[in-house]
Amino acid sequence: MFFFFAGGLEQQVRQVVKSGASRCIACRSPCDLVDYEKVLKIFFIPVWRWPGKESVMHCNNCKLFFPQTYSLPPPDADSTAEALRCRFCDRRVESEFSFCPYCGSAM
């Protein structure tokens, strides 16, 4: 008997608690403090959702979820607040760009 399972478990943002609360540990762009939920999907259809245990940080640039204890200080107000960093070449990229102008990777 052959059994094929197409699905998995993923995390999704449920509610933003505080916007711009910190910086991402991977790409150093601003990230938000969020409440999240875990979603079980079977054949790409959500079948079960349950809330996460505590609030976590979520980066809108690289879509990373990580605990608050690992976060970096929030971005400076006097620096370019809208400038992000490319997660591959670590150069500053303006927020309106969809691709890094230096290495061409997707933002």
UniProtKB/TrEMBL annotation:
Signal peptide: none
UniProt cross-references to InterPro entries, sorted A to Z: Double_zinc_ribbon, Zinc_ribbon_15
Domain of life, source organism: Eukaryota
Pfam family, one: Zn_ribbon_15
Residues annotated as domain Zinc-ribbon: 23-104
Database matches in PANTHER family: DOUBLE ZINC RIBBON PROTEIN MJ0416 (PTHR36718:SF1), OS05G0435400 PROTEIN (PTHR36718)
Protein name (database record): Zinc-ribbon 15 domain-containing protein
